[in-house]
Amino acid sequence: MRWPVSEIVIAPAKEVVDLDGLENVLKGQTNSKKITVLAAGEKPRMDLEIAPVHKKIGPVYKGAAKMVVEAIAAADPADVKRQLDGGEATLSYKGMEYKITSEMVQIKELPPQNLPAAEFSKGFVYVDIVLTPELEAEGYAREIIRRIQDMRKELDLRVEDQIRAMVDIESKPILDLALQKKEHIASEVRAADFQLGLGLELRGKLVKDWDIEGVCVRIGIDIK
Fold first, then answer.
1. Coil, strand, or helix at residue 155?
2. Distance from first CA to last CA of the chain, Å, rounded?
């Protein structure tokens, strides 16, 4: 829930969905960078799954039915659907061509793996869960900020109190991501002196180890 997502897509089934000026509220509540509202009946680009309808293929192709089934399995579902939308599709397979109609196949739309969906009263909501390096950097920065803020509370510091903070991250790839947000982290936790590194010798009035997404992050803070 704390990790940011790049986009949330709202796909209304029949009626237009009006956010009524609440887009920024929705972005904040869902931790999303972008909210997209599609037209009624429109969907995001779907993955397609195609399956042969044997009882329709057999009577037409008889002994060649097996080859047609193989041709359907080898075909690009999106290409087959595009052709069928215009009438019939021609499949090329092992040097042969086979013409099929829409009743010879079942085409099912599936949300891409990166775009899980949930139904609501007016349609569907899709969440883009692909983590870009930018989103990962923001996510780790938020986790570090949250831990330091917890430590500030433990020391009973006032909001305006400045601190010195040291953050040691055992993973170089995660450290590289966090370094992208170093100034932002320091600003959010009111750290006048802020160090972020690997293999740091921590010191301070309070030093704690934290587990962030399976990575050990050691934090030391002191009053400035």
1. coil
2. 33
For helices 54-61 and 65-74, the axis angle rounded to 10 degrees is: 130
Contact at 8 Å (CB) between 4 and 33? yes
Q: Contact 163/224 with Cβ under 8 angstroms?
A: yes
Percent share of the chain, pLDDT over 90: 86
DSSP 96: E
> What are the b/e assignments for 190-200, b being 16+ CB within 10 Å?
bbeebebeeee
- Which pair of structure tokens corresponds to residue 18? 């009006």
Summary mean pLDDT of the chain: 93
Report how far apart, in Å, the C-alpha atoms of 164 and of each of 83, 140, 144, 195 are.
65, 20, 14, 8
CA distances from 133 to 63, 104, 137, 172 (A): 53, 44, 6, 14
Check the CA dihedral 27-34-136-223 and report its sign: negative
d(CA 112, CA 24): 26
